[in-house]
Amino acid sequence: MVLGGSIAGLFAARVLADAYDEVQIVDRDTLIDVAGPRRSCPQGKHINGLLARGQQVMEEFYPGITNEIFADGVPTGDLCGNVRWYFNGVRIQQQEAGLTCVSASRPMLEKHIRRRTAALPNVVFVEQHDILGLATTPDKSKVTGARVQARGQKREKVIDADLVIDATGRGSRTPIWLQELGYGLVEEESKKVGLGYVTQHYRLKSDPYHGDLSINPVANATLPRGAIFTKTDGGRVELTAYGILGDHPPTDQQGFYDFVKTLAAPEIHEALMHAEPLDEPVAFRFPTTLRRHYEKLDRFPDGLLVVGDAVTCFNPVYAQGMTVSALSALTIRNHLHSGAAPQPMQYFQDLSKNVIDPPWEMTNTVDLSFPGVEGERPLQMRFAQKFLKLVQYAATKDKAIAAQYMRAAGLIDGPEKMQRPGFMLKVLLKGIFGPAKKTPAPPLVPIAGGHVETWSEYRNAA
After folding, report:
1. Residue ranges in 143-265 assigned as alpha helix (H)
2. 302 CB-side CA count, 13 A
3. Do strands 129-136 and 206-207 pair parallel, antiparallel, or not at all (unpaired)?
4. String of b and e for 51-79 (b: at least 16 CB within 10 Å)?
5. Are 343 and 159 in contact (CB under 8 A)?
6. What CA–CA distance (Å, rounded) separates 104 from 319?
7. Are 435 and 393 contacting, i.e. CB atoms less than 8 angstroms apart?
8. How many CB atoms lie under 10 A from the CB of residue 361?
9. Which of 39, 157, 254, 326 could link 57 by a cystine bridge, Cβ 3.0 to 4.6 Å?
């Protein structure tokens, strides 16, 4: 049984369907045939990035799904070759790096993953059910199912299961349930980033992209504001502008435009002045990152695993959550190879070391480059921050360095690829004197008819 029909829950259900006679996905929402944002997924109204490694795993789980998504009007491109990145206010070089972008809105991506999961003959969706707690053996050493309650009914019921997966997100009650069952307190690690962002959708009347897929000015210590301005499904463009440490975009239209005007990519604001808003600006607040260290517990009940945001909530600016959820499902599959239920502590130790540690350390390094973010900055981290800035400087001059940096950011390559002596020397030589000179953004080009319906039409027009 999977608790939660999120993307993390769907990925988990997919791998479990290969090992169990039946997999039940329990969620408080209606899931089947839902096309728009779900009530229990507030981030569904905002940009949700699937990194290149996440796309690879998704395709492995559901062969052919990437092309199915593209055929549904979703734009695509290369994370380095077709995305205009600004770091420290300067645009880096662009080069194809083999990093497939799936520029789908969250509801669109979820729809396709859910449809392919529902097509599995042994997967059952238990919709409109609240999750009340776990069921266990009398000695509380093994979880045997979950207590649930159908919406609108007073009587609860127990659904028995050989294995329960908690995919209920940041609000997961597993730490509370463990304490109630007599297990230890789960150590939590958090960092206050004070992130706030606002999202709005548009139809463009002029083109700022010139063949690119997205324009992404990244926040930095000097200007703690950034944005993702990307083409998405339905012939629309999607803008999420963000600020950290309380410097949040306003939700009134003029205030939002004024905020966007301060970003390092002036072409975004210029394009908005010739765009048709399709909805109102919508805000989201993300005060702290969060990591639950289940791997540090002395003991853990059999028959229970935790995945996705229920384990680790990354700073969403780095778009790592869905990809880590996919890698978490891969980890579950690796622990199912013997045909027996996974051993929880072995799973959590593997998950922590091989899936969560690398991106967590990467984002910690970046988050703590902002002086106002509280946290320890040991010598090793300060060195990593200086080197990262050199990489970003060098990437404004060298396409190969930019591509390698984006491969690391896309979780395709581990950080060790940027620690090779030859690469480090090249970064030092290219980056020691700072970034390249700023170049003006290309001029806006009118779009015939006011907007482009599909990505293929856009490419043909271009």
Report:
1. 174-180, 253-261
2. 10
3. unpaired
4. bbbbbbbbeebbeebbeebbeebbbbbbb
5. no
6. 13
7. yes
8. 12
9. 326
Across-strand partners of 290? 190, 313
Q: Any alpha helices (H) in 27-158, and if so which ranges? A: 52-61, 65-71, 106-118
- Residue among 176, 198, 199, 197 nearest 186 (CA): 176
Distance in angstroms (rounded) separating the CA atoms of residues 102 and 62:
15
Three-state DSSP state, 133: strand
Whether the Cβ atoms of residue 207 and residue 235 lie closer than 8 Å to each other? no
In degrees and rounded to multiples of 5, residue 179 shows phi and psi of -65, -40
Angle between helices 52-61 and 321-334 (to 10 degrees): 40
Beta strands 187-204 and 23-26, pairing class: unpaired
| Beta carbons of 48 and 319 less than 8 angstroms apart | yes
Q: What is the pLDDT of residue 440?
A: 79
Contacts by residues 451-460 (CB-CB < 8 Å, ≥ 24 positions apart): 451/203, 451/204, 451/205, 451/235, 451/276, 452/204, 452/235, 453/73, 453/235, 454/73, 454/235, 455/70, 455/73, 455/74, 455/75, 455/76, 455/231, 458/75, 458/231, 459/211
Q: Beta strands 2-3 and 164-166: pairing type?
A: parallel
For 104, 198, 232, 416, 426, the CA distances from 31, given in Å and listed in that order, are: 18, 26, 22, 41, 50
Domains and CATH numbers, the chain: 2-189+287-364 (3.50.50.60), 193-285+446-461 (3.30.70.2450), 370-431 (no CATH)
- In this structure, which long-range contacts are made by residues 220-226, counting pairs with CB atoms below 8 Å and at least 24 apart in sequence? 220/87, 220/88, 220/89, 220/369, 221/369, 221/370, 221/371, 222/88, 222/89, 223/89, 223/262, 223/263, 223/264, 224/370, 224/372, 225/249, 225/259, 225/262, 225/263, 226/263, 226/264, 226/317
Q: Which residues pair with 312 in a beta bridge?
A: 291
Q: How many residues does the chain have?
A: 462
Quick one: pLDDT at residue 462?
40
Instruction: Kindly tell me the burial class for residue 281, based on how many C-beta atoms sit within 10 Å of its own C-beta (0-12, 13-18, 19 or more).
Output: buried
Quote the tokens at residue 2: 């999977």
pLDDT along the chain (462 residues), means of 10: 95 96 94 74 76 95 96 94 96 94 91 96 95 96 96 91 96 96 95 95 93 95 95 94 95 96 96 94 94 96 96 92 95 84 94 95 93 93 95 97 95 90 94 89 72 40 42
CA gyration radius for the chain?
Answer: 22
Give the helix, strand, coil percentages of the chain, each rounded to 5. 35, 25, 40
Task: Tell me which H or E stretch contains 12.
Answer: helix 7-16
**What pLDDT is recorded for position 436?**
93
